[in-house]
Amino acid sequence: MKKILCIIATPKKEEESYGRQMTHHFIKEYLKLNINDKIDILNLYDKEISFLDCENIIDCSKSQGKMYEYANKFKLYDKYIIYAPMWNLSIPGILKAYLDLVIANKITFKYNSFGIPKGLLTNKKAFYIGTRGGAYPFPISFLTYDLKYIKCIFKFIGIKDFKNFILENIDKKPENTKTNFPKTLLKISDFAKKF
Ligand SMILES: Cc1cc2nc3c(=O)[nH]c(=O)nc-3n(C[C@H](O)[C@H](O)[C@H](O)COP(=O)(O)O)c2cc1C
């Protein structure tokens, strides 16, 4: 049995959010093929995610406190599903605040004797679902700090098996998004089957 953590980083309800609907569909399709696996849903807006403070950082080095607790809990999972909308070219702050709690020295990464960081979460997988109001084709593709950051930080903690699906133009072309949504869900099904 594999344990999966599904992190949701939007304040929207499922019926208002294409991203959440895609995430729901991904989970449903995944569980059809992996009936014994267990998925925990972590809706960040339902939790009290606070910014890291000095106390958290000092406590973690003493193997106690919120950061220590969050990071140890996070590393127990085999697979991660993350949903986040693009906000101001990046991820919502609440997701960054959560990642600041779980990316902890000696728990999810460590420094080797040369001072080079090494991820400690090996043999794990992540799937990132992202949504954007507009589109970012070349030559503005470099602005997609949402995907760049998530991919990079998961690699930093050792998760190299990282895949993603980004739905763009949700606000710019709402009619297209709606019409094409059944096809979008089919693509999500394919990803879920391979996860
Ligand atoms: C605070 C805020 C900032 C946003 N910034 C961007 C942005 O930089 N680029 C973009 O394409 N869309 C931006 N959007 C639009 C959202 O990405 C879009 O509405 C969202 O992905 C739709 O997600 P949903 O499927 O969960 O409703 C922003 C929306 C909000 C509320």
UniProtKB/TrEMBL annotation:
InterPro entries: Flavodoxin_fold, Flavoprotein-like_sf, FMN-dep_NADH:Q_OxRdtase_AzoR1, NADH:quinone_OxRdtase_FMN_depd. It holds the Pfam family Flavodoxin_2. Its cofactor is FMN. Binds 1 FMN per subunit. Transmembrane segments: none annotated. It catalyses: 2 a quinone + NADH + H(+) = 2 a 1,4-benzosemiquinone + NAD(+); N,N-dimethyl-1,4-phenylenediamine + anthranilate + 2 NAD(+) = 2-(4-dimethylaminophenyl)diazenylbenzoate + 2 NADH + 2 H(+). Gene3D superfamilies: 3.40.50.360. Residues 2-187 form the Flavodoxin-like fold domain. GO terms for molecular function: electron transfer activity; FMN binding; oxidoreductase activity, acting on NAD(P)H as acceptor; oxidoreductase activity, acting on NAD(P)H, quinone or similar compound as acceptor. FMN binds at M86, W87, N88, L89, T131, R132, G133, G134. It is an enzyme of class 1 (oxidoreductase). It comes from the Bacteria. Keywords: Flavoprotein, FMN, NAD, Oxidoreductase. Its EC number is 1.6.5.-, 1.7.1.17. Quinone reductase that provides resistance to thiol-specific stress caused by electrophilic quinones. Also exhibits azoreductase activity. Catalyzes the reductive cleavage of the azo bond in aromatic azo compounds to the corresponding amines. Homodimer. Belongs to the azoreductase type 1 family. This is FMN dependent NADH:quinone oxidoreductase. The gene is azoR.
